[in-house]
Each structure stands twice: as structure tokens, then as C-alpha cells.
Specification:
The protein is built from seven helices and five strands, in the order H-E-E-E-H-E-H-H-E-H-H-H. The chain is α/β, with parallel strands linked by helices. The protein has a single domain, classed as Ribonuclease H-like superfamily/Ribonuclease H (Nucleotidyltransferase, domain 5), CATH 3.30.420.10. The protein has a five-stranded mixed sheet, sandwiched between helices. The protein is globular, with a radius of gyration of 19 Å.
Length: 206
């Protein structure tokens, strides 16, 4: 826990950007009957019946010190998908960084081993050398600021029926552009000192 909190105290350095990473799933649902449009004093209404159009995985990374975030849609959430997301992170989004300081939870796919499952050894090592993993403790995934961003995304963008992947990607892009353009950031205040007082039950007993 203190390891992650220490990462959050580091000053901004473009050579070593701090990035939080997490994922969420979204079920695609289509209307069987057309929704009724809103009227003055009456919200839009939709029929309780719907069609299931599958589930998509959303990978989200968030850079707190620059208030940047990006969401990527994938068909699945496997080691291979995570590995490709990590390659995009270092090669596409942070090509000039010496090392990306990555905060993730303890999901089994969040590991350098996933890189070796997806790529040959040389490529996996190249990507791994560009990443510095920091893990939230068990039952402490809330320490990953990407989880906060996902909660906001769920409230502002995903809390309605979305029928297909094309619409989902368009909605996500609009949300992402707005959040990045306004430099909206998480106001993180939880410190190591707070943890030692409020979460002392999580520390090993002597």
C-alpha cells in the first residue's frame, strides 16, 4: 500500500510518467421497441425488454499528474489483450518515456508474464523494460486512481443502453475528449500518514 502511495508523491517527470490502469466490462443492449423521446417535464422512456448484443471489455489508463486518460475497447479481457494494451501504452502513447510507472491491481493478467504469453521473448522483454509495475494490496484496489475514473465513466457515459460497439466507441471517445480537454483530475488526498492511522489493521502485527 505504501509503495503505491509513494508513487503518487513523486513529482512529474515526462521521462517517467505515472499511469494508473484498470478495466471494466460493458454489456451491449439494444431496444426491441423504439424509445419514447423526452418531453417537457418528462424524461425519455424505454421499454423494459431489450436484446443482448454481447459484452465488451474496456481498458482505461489515467495519468494523474497530466490529467490524461484513454479508453480502449476489446472483445475480451485476457493476458493477450492486456499485453497488447501495454505495448500500445509504451509505443503509441508514451514513445519518448524511459519507463512508464504503472499502478495496477492484483488481477492475474496484470503481470509481465502476460507479455511473454503474447510476444516472443525479445519483444516481451523490450516492453517489460519500459514498465515499472506497482501493485495495490489485496482488497485495496481503490488505491488505483484508474478505478475512480472508471466509476466516473460508468456514471457519465455507460449508465444507459448502448446497442453496438461502434456506438460504444463513439460515446467513449466523446467522454475521453471532454475529460482531457477540461483537464479534469482526481483530487487525491490519501497519504501514507493517513494509511498508518486509518488502515493500521492492514499492517503486519509484531
Amino acid at each position: 500500500m505504501e509503495d503505491v502511495l509513494e508513487v503518487y508523491t513523486r513529482p512529474y517527470d515526462p521521462r517517467y510518467p505515472q499511469v494508473c490502469f484498470d478495466e471494466i466490462s460493458k454489456q451491449l443492449l439494444g431496444d426491441i421497441l423504439p424509445s419514447l423521446p423526452p418531453k417537457p417535464g418528462t424524461p425519455a422512456r424505454e421499454d423494459y425488454e431489450y436484446e443482448r448484443h454481447g459484452v465488451r471489455n474496456l481498458f482505461l489508463w489515467y495519468e494523474p499528474l497530466q490529467s490524461r486518460r484513454h479508453v480502449e475497447v476489446t472483445d475480451r479481457r485476457t493476458r493477450i489483450d492486456f499485453a497488447h494494451a501495454m505495448r500500445d501504452l509504451v509505443d503509441v502513447h508514451y514513445p519518448d518515456a524511459i519507463k512508464v510507472i504503472l499502478v495496477v491491481d492484483n488481477l492475474n493478467i496484470h503481470s509481465p508474464a502476460s507479455l511473454y504469453a503474447a510476444f516472443d521473448a525479445a519483444e516481451a522483454k523490450r516492453i517489460s523494460d519500459r514498465l515499472e509495475f506497482h501493485y495495490t494490496p489485496k482488497h485495496g484496489s481503490w488505491l488505483d486512481m484508474a478505478e475512480i475514473e472508471l466509476a466516473i465513466l460508468s456514471t457519465q457515459c455507460l449508465d444507459r443502453r448502448i446497442p453496438d460497439e461502434e456506438t460504444l466507441k463513439a460515446e467513449l471517445a466523446a467522454w475521453e475528449d471532454t475529460r482531457n480537454a477540461t483537464a479534469t483530475r482526481v483530487n487525491w488526498r490519501f497519504t501514507t500518514a493517513d494509511a498508518r492511522i486509518k488502515l493500521r489493521h492492514l499492517y503486519p502485527s509484531h
